[in-house]
Each structure stands twice: as C-alpha cells, then as structure tokens.
Amino acid sequence: MNRRDFIKTAGLTAAGASLLPGCTPVGDDKFEQALYPAPEGIIPGEPIYLSTTCMECPANCGVSAKNVDGRTIKLEGIIGHPINDGGLCVRGQATITRLYHPKRYKSPMRRTRNGDFDAITWEEAYRSVWSALQTDKSGGRSSVYLSSRTTGSLSTFIDRFCAALGVSRLPELEVFSHSAVRQANQTVFGHKAIPTYKIDRADFLLTVGADLLETFVSPVEHATKISKGKDTGSFWWTHVEPHISIEAMSADTRLACKPGTEAVLLGYLLQQFGGSVSGQGPIEASSVVEQVGLSEESLTKLVQRMREARRPLVIAGGVSVQHEKGLEVAVLAAQLQKQLGSAAEVMDFNSAYNYDNVGSLLDAEVWTKKLNAGEIGVIFVSKTDPALTLPKPLGFAEGFKKATLRVGLSEISNKTLDECDIILPLSHFLESWGDAEPRKGLRTIIQPTREQLFNTKSEGDILLDLLQTAGKPRPKNFRAFIESEWARLGTPLTPDIMKAGFVATAAAAAKPAAGPATGAGASPVAAGAAASVAASATPPHPAPLQVSFADGLSAQLEGDVLVVTPSLRFYDGRSRLLPLNAQGATLLEEIPEPVSTISYGEWISVRGWQDVTGEFVRGLDQIEITLGETRLQPLALKLQPRLPDSVYMVERPFLVAPDLGIDRRTGEPISFSPNLKWRGAGIIPVAVMSGSPSQEGRGIIPNAVETPGEEAAAHHKSQRMDGIVASEPELPGEHEERLTLYPEHVHQPYRWGMTIDLDKCTGCSACVAACYVENNIPLVGKDAHLNGREMSWIRIEPYFDGEARGDFIPMLCQQCDSAPCEPVCPVYAAYHNPDGLNGQIYNRCVGTRYCANNCPYKVRRFNWINYEWESPLDQMINPEVSVRGRGVMEKCTFCVQRIRAGKDHAKDENRLVRDGEIQPACVQTCPSDAIQFGNMLDENSKMMQARKTDRAYRVFESLGTEPAVTYLADVTKEDEVSIGNA
Amino acid sequence: MFKRFGTLLFYAYFGVFFLITLGLSSYFNAFHSTPPQPVPYPHVKHLQAGLQCLDCHQSANKGKYAGLPPLSFCMSCHQSVGTNLPGIKTLTEYWKTKKPVQWNRLHRIPDFVYFSHKRHVTAKTKNYPNGVPCQSCHGQVQNMPYPMRKSRSLSMGFCVGCHRQNNASLDCYTCHK
C-alpha cells in the first residue's frame, strides 16, 4: 500500500464513519426570490463599483467601493483622481472595519443616572436636544457646535443650522491644524493656506519634519507625487527631522538634527541663497555643525544639491513646527522657498487645501475657558475627540462636565462620546450622502455604497430633523440639499459625476489676503451664529505675524528630549477603534507600525537603555516618564535602532490629553519636552513582530552592508534578552547548477510575477491592510502575536544594518518555481499551478505545517483556532475567497481570485489577459506605485520591463528557489546621520 | 441448544445490517429527498409552453449565478394566465403581500468552490461546441413536473470527470478558492 492509497482508504473510512458530514439537511437551505428585477447592469454575484470619498482623515481621497450583492467589501482608490490617483493608505483601507464594527452605535442613546446608556427613539433624542436649546436661550447660556474639519455642503448646512437655532459654531478642531505653516505662508506668500505641493514638478525636495507620508495634509497624494518625481530620473529628497519615521527611511538623504534646531539649519540655508535672517548675523557653517549636529560634509552636499536644483521645494511641518521655535522653522522654510525662486512652479495656492474653518489650540483654549466658566449649555461634539487630543491644561474634561447637555455625534464610541448625555449615531460615510471639498477647485461626492446597517443617520440628516423639531423650514432630506447645492454651484449631479466621484473646477486665482487684524487666528466664540455664517463665506484673515529672529533660532532643548509624533496608523487617535472580536483585535493594530514593528501595545522608542539610576533596563520593560512635574502612564520600552541619542519617541494617540503646552503664537501643540526623566516600572508584553533589526548577513536587502553592524548586534542582543547573537552565516553567492528529480515546469501562456521597487516603497503598510481586507485574513489579536502567530500574508520588514538610514522590504509569498513548500506536503495541498503560482488548497490541507517549516521566506501562516466573524463583520467577507478554518495553512495567492476574474473577463472577449489588467490588492492600493504585477512570459509587460535594471535581485537567490518576485534594490547609497553614532 | 444459538446468531448478524440499512435510509431521506416548495412550480409546463432556460434564469450566461427571475417577471404572465389554478393563487398571494418566496434550494456547491455558470454555458469544447447544456448538471429539467429533483451529485468527482472528457482545466485553483 503506497502513501496515496493509504490516504484514500483512510479518507473513505472516515467518510463512511460520519456519513456525509457537513451536509445541510434538505429544506434548511433557502433561496429567496426577489420581487423586482435588479437595476440595469447588475448581475447577481458580480461586483459593481461606486465612487465616493474617504472621510477617515481630512485628505479626502477618492475611493471606489466594491459592492457584491449589496455588500460593500473593499475600497480602492479612484484611478485618475486628482488627489490619490488609485492609491489608498492603510487607514483608508481599514475604514471598512469601522463600517462593519460590531460595537458601532446602533440607535440613539441617552445616558442614565448610573452612567449607562439606554436606547431611545430619534424623536425623543431630538426633543431632548431642542428643549435644552430653548433652556439655553432663556437661561442666557450659549449653545455651541464643535466638529472636526468639515467641508462642502455639510459645512454650509451646519452654518445654516447654527444660524436657525442660535447655536455658535466653534472653529473646527484638528490637532494637526497646520496653523504654523498657514501663518508662515501668510507672512511670506500672503496666503493663509496650505498650497498643493507639486512634488512631481520639483527636482529637489527638502522636508523639515513634515511627515509627508503619514498625516501631513494629504499623505497618499504626496506618496503618489514622490513616485512620479522618481520616475523623471532627476529627483532628490532630503529629509530633516530629530527622530526617525518612515519619511526618514524613505528619503534619499536622511539628516537627523538635534531637537529644536531646524531653524538654525534653515537660517543658514537662507543666507547661503542670498536671503537675510532679520535680527541674526551671518550664521557660520561651523555653528550649524555644532548646534544642529550635522557634519560639515553633509551640509556642503545639501547646499550644493539645492544650488544645482532647478525647481527645489521646501516643506516644513509636522513635529518640526511644534516647538518653541516652530514658527521660525515654518517662516524660514517659506522664506527659503521664496528665495529659491521656484515657489510658483512647485506650490499652488490656487488649489489650496480647505483649512479655512480649522481652528488652532488657541481657539480651543477660548472655548474651553467658556466651558469651564459654565457659560455653555448645549455642546454638540461631532466626529472629534477633544478628551483625547486637547492638552490637559485646557481643562476640557472638567469643563465638559459643566455643560447642561452634551450631544455626541459619531459612529463609534471614543473618550468624549463616553461622557456625552445624548448619543446621535452617525452613519458611516459608506452609507451616507454627502460631498467634500478637500481643496479649492475640487469637489467630491459621497454616496451610499450599501444599505444602512443600523438605525443611524448622516450628520446632515440629523441636523435637518432637528430643524424640523424646532419648527423651522428644512430641505426634504440631505441628499436633496446636496443636489440643490451642486446645482447652485453650476455642476448639477449628473450620472457622469456620480460615476467619476469628483469634479475639478477651474480654481479662481487666490488673492493674497489683507484683512483686519483680529489676533492670532482665533475667531471668537461669542461672534454668534450670524458671524459664523459670514466667517465661513469669507474666512477671517488677520494680519500676518511679524516674526523676529533676534531671540535666537534654537529651541534650546536640553537633556533627554521626548518627541510626540503623529501616528501612521491612528492619525491623531481617531482611527484607533475599539476591539473588533473576541481576540481583542483591530485591523490597524494588527498591522505592525513599520519602523518599530510593534503591532499591539503602547510604547516609547529609545536608543539608549540605561535609566536615571544607571540601572540596565531591557527592551520591552515598562518605563515611567517624568516631565518636570508631570508623570505619564507607564509605556513599554522599544529599543529603536537609528533613533538619535537622547531622543525618546512616542506616538500622539498613546498619550491621553498630552500636556506639553501650546505654542502661544501659532496654536500648535508643543510636541517636545526636554529634561525627561524615567525609571523602570516592571515588564509589559508588547508584540514586536520583527525577529531582529539586522539581516544577520543574509543579504535580504543587498546594498546594505552584509554583516550586521556592531550596533545592530547590540540591539539584537538586548531585544532578545538572552544575549545570544546568531553567528554570521557564510552564504554562497550563486546557486550551483540546478539539479532536480522533478520535471521542469511548463508555463503557458502565463507565469505570474511581481517586481517590487524598494526605492519607491515607503513602508506605509497600505498593501498590508489591503491584503487583510481582500483575503478575509482573520485578526488574531495580541496574545497570538505574542506567541509569534501572526496571520499577515504580506509584511513590511525594516532592517537597520549598514546604512545609517534603515530600509524597508515588503515580504510576501515569492511564488517560487522550485518551491521548498511543495514537495514536503504529504497531501498535495501545496502544489505548483500551471500559471506558476504555489497553490494552497485549503480543503486538502491537514495542517502538518511542514511547508511553513520549509519556507525560507517565513510567509506561510497557520490557523491555530477558528476565528469568528461577529455580525456584521461577516458582511465584509469577500465571497471570492474561502474563510479558512482551524488547522489550515494559508498564504499569499497573488490574489488568485483577481487573476481568475481577469482571465474570465479575457475569455469572454476571446483573448489573452492584457498587461496591467490584473492587479492584486497590494499592487492596486500602493500609493507609491512600487509594485508591478504581470506575466513573466510577456517580455514587454511593464513588470518585466521594470526588471531590466542593475538593481534587480531576488531574495535568497543562493537557495535556488527561483522566486517569481524580483526586488529592485534601493538606489541610494548616501545618507548622513550625525548625532552621536546614530 | 447450539442449533438455536446458531439461528440467533444468524438473525442477529443480518439483523444488524437490516437496522443499519433502515437507519441509513431514514438518514438518506433527510438529505436526499426532494423537498416540497412553497409554490408547486412545474418546469415541464413552462418548457412545453415554449420557454427556454435562459428566459427565466437570465444571468446563467452572464454571471456566476443562473439567478431566479424576480416575482414581477412571473406575474407579467400570471396576471392573466392560469389564474384559477391553486398554485398561481398562492403565487399571486405572495405578490399581493409583497412577500419574497423562500424556495428550497436543491443545488448548492460548497463555499470553497468557484463555479461560474457563464463559463460553462458559453464554453466551446469538442463535445459541447455550443456550450455545456443545462441538462448535463441539472438533469432533464424540461421533463420534470413538480417537485423539481436534484439528479446529479455535483461532487468533485462529477466535475473532474467532465473536465477530463472535455480537456478543460484540471488546475486545482480553477475551482478551489
């Protein structure tokens, strides 16, 4: 009896024993007959795509929502959209888990005496709000409306609502208000706005602290444009910042400056290009070297590059404008841009971002004072979380309690909503009508992509109903209001616009604003409803700030410095949702933060590892930070290679009401704190997904030094806690001539392959999120991650050898031609497919895990338990992909369901698949266009053309696995970090 | 004594088989009987009247699912045709109360299988130059009175057998998703 016969017999015996297990008894399986025909063009089971706008962050990318049989299952960027052009970021991909979140608000609620919430009807909710509004009027208290950045018709309608009911609209609350940049642009260019940065037109990009690819204004747009810039062949990106971020790891040159010294560098550069820094004498290169911590050589190179550049672009922002000299940094960057003479070519104020109604923390200070003085009765809080984001000294938490009625509008609970009296549940933007105007000259449509899941309403419809409760005239519904608004603006909503999802109108030339001086950008709360309406029509333009540099350019941050950074995954905290399932998982936490590779947990990144008493603290120990009088909550310690000495880095969402102060001139939050002290506070488990910061000499990214640097080894040692450093293996460069017992594979007419450009890859992790949503990958949670049981089919690996900058490499199944996983499978579940894919047939798999053990790329994943998709999460399951059960191995399939659909479509037209017709989810979403997919047998395919470069290599070539994935090594060899030996 | 014991053993031996058969047969009914339908729909009448499969199952050559016609489509004829028949009265009742009919499903392939009606109906092979006829998988539906029966197992062996004969793809990924 041979092996196969044994398995057959065993299978037969098992089947006989249980007799048709898993069959559904007759009559239990129902098939519902529809009453009316489906709309024209809809075929059951076939996807349709609806254009809408992503509202997860203020960038407002265009998204095309894939809907199958009435369920929205996946979002993709709209190709040709002026903002994101097909790409979508990690948060945009994950917003669908907000839509289907089991803990969403399901009906209006009222807080009871013991602090719980009781479900009420909409009518009851409206009446409570209306009577409280009337009490306010008679009692002399004011009612206020607070929202996050809101544009388009909804903004207009909120103004109308506020005017009709005598509610004051507060300046919109965004922690990332970019107010320093806006004020600097007003001072230098006369526009209090953020322009559209034409990065693709520039040939030299200098970014100072601006987290272009994470939260700065429009991250997907920037990534897309940087990629287009790189395509031109003459593009250089130099990034300056005091810490380490994905921008630092993606730029061509990374310059690490000492915290708070960016203005010294910018002042020096300005003088080099003939500008003058008022109140400052000539800045010597030697003083820059000393103060900023850069080497003389890198400074010379920087100046030289800028001199050679024809269209240089300078962008300051992010943490670099969030310290005491933040305004100086922003103003000097703008002056440098002006001095360089390329401003008109690379900055477009005519299509400036719509931040006119966004206030700063100074505005927040004004209204929180009123809250605390008990002057505010009813407060509406819509889609924002001041309890998390506002600095503690503003006293929001205390003041909020003094309001008579707190009305919260949101899809899901957050810190502020938990304190509200009335909850008005919002529909997700994928269920609502609306529109947005992310920047001048661009209006985008928001349309429902599926039916309402719960008893929720869009913000516009809620306000409309409240108007009716108050007996005021109202439009029929919010959709009707939008239609009338679009008609009024001269672009009626035609089916073409609904299909495209956006209208780009010719932007009126922006006039430099010169308005009455009314202080530092705060529009006063007491201005009242009428003023608020007027304000939104003609935004206030106070006189430009006059900045003097006489006080010095450095923020003088001494000792160990805490840097509070924006978060790639959670933005300002709004994208951090409640746990989704029994494993306590959420999609964005499941995906590791790319630099630290931590998935679950709150951590602080540190380079050194000795606490104040000189005691040795190991990686992942918990530490407690003291800043002067303030003590932060204990955070896990992550030893972060390449982080400059004495810089401690923590993501903003991890700090509740972070108390580092406010910049009195710009209203930006201060994100630095000097003289930090800390001590050990026990051990906390935090899921670090990377096994090592070093490649251990394996040549995964070839231009990195082959042997692990001393420092990487030291980090490795401390992170593992066991003091063992793997010895360096000596690898043969080439695999000897292939000897095999198996016949050669014949692939005809397709062999699918992938080319990944590491120069373009920014580590943004959008591909990882897209893969999770597309392939029904279960979210396994923190405990599984701590056991090393992650499920991601594609992951971003950071390595910190050799180069001072670090590098990312996306790792997924390499679809080897000579795959080590295939011959070891005892049941032929892993097999080689005629198209060159390493197939994995889930029904066949019996879970021996031999394949995973034999895979050198560590990309096979095992289901240790059955994961439940709690309703309504089950509605986001992609019907084209099996949901895997316990005991089954799974892995990347190159999105075989998309390949199948592409071939199906080609077959209908009796032809072969065209190049570019099939795009796996990761390829589709990549904002940087770093991944190409195509047929390896077609030499003319874009993917094969991209391989024809010296940079092409395959990972672990020496093993002879013949992968179908080719990487293009990073082109940059130069970088510069000068603090300590970072 | 021995003779009696032997007879007992004989009956016991075959009795066990009898009981197993009896048990299995009742089990068989639970899984393989033809379920009653909410409306006694006879395929044979409709096909005799000149209708074709694709007239009602309109997406069979367009998409993965063959699809059921909407109730409004049934009513477009049955407003005037056969209105006095008890079945049509039931159907009209569903339509008047706007209640979707819950049919009992006969043909169901497992969740992990990709199957496209379109690919089969529009296939061109040596054996089937004009597409695989519906009858190959669904049986002689045109002769079936109420209730409709499932006449093929639709198991993997059934699929692979036909794929072999017609030189269709035998790659696992063609069907397994």
In short:
Chain A has 982 residues and is an alpha/beta fold. Chain A contains 28 helices and 41 strands. Chain A has 4 domains: 109-175 and 358-537, Rossmann fold, CATH 3.40.50; 179-353, Dimethylsulfoxide Reductase, domain 2; 562-683, Beta Barrel (Barwin-like endoglucanases), CATH 2.40.40.20; 743-968, Alpha-Beta Plaits (2-Layer Sandwich), CATH 3.30.70.
Describe the protein in words:
The complex is a heterodimer of chains A (982) and B (177). Chain A is an alpha/beta fold. Chain A folds into 4 domains: 109-175 and 358-537, 3-Layer(aba) Sandwich (Rossmann fold), CATH 3.40.50.740; 179-353, Dimethylsulfoxide Reductase, domain 2, CATH 3.40.228.10; 562-683, Barwin-like endoglucanases; 743-968, Alpha-Beta Plaits (2-Layer Sandwich), CATH 3.30.70.20. Chain A has 28 helices and 41 strands. In chain A, the strands form 12 sheets. Chain A has a 7-stranded mixed sheet with strand order 6-5-19-18-17-7-8, with helices on both faces. A 5-stranded parallel sheet of chain A has the order 14-11-12-13-41. In chain A, helix 5 packs parallel to helix 17 (459-469), helix 9 (262-272) runs antiparallel to helix 10 (285-292) and helix 9 packs parallel to helix 12. The longest helix of chain A has 18 residues, at 122-139. Chain B has 177 residues and is mainly alpha-helical. The longest helix of chain B has 31 residues, at 2-32. Chain B is flat and about 75 Å long. The termini of chain B are far apart. Chain A binds chain B through residues 19-20, 23-27, 29-38, 43-46, 831, 833-835, 837, 839, 841-843, 880-883, 893, 896-897, 900, 904, 907-908, and chain B through 24, 27, 30-35, 59, 62-65, 67-73, 95, 98, 100-105, 108, 111-112, 114, 116, 118-119, 122, 169, 171-174, 176-177. Strand 1 of chain A pairs antiparallel with strand 1 of chain B.
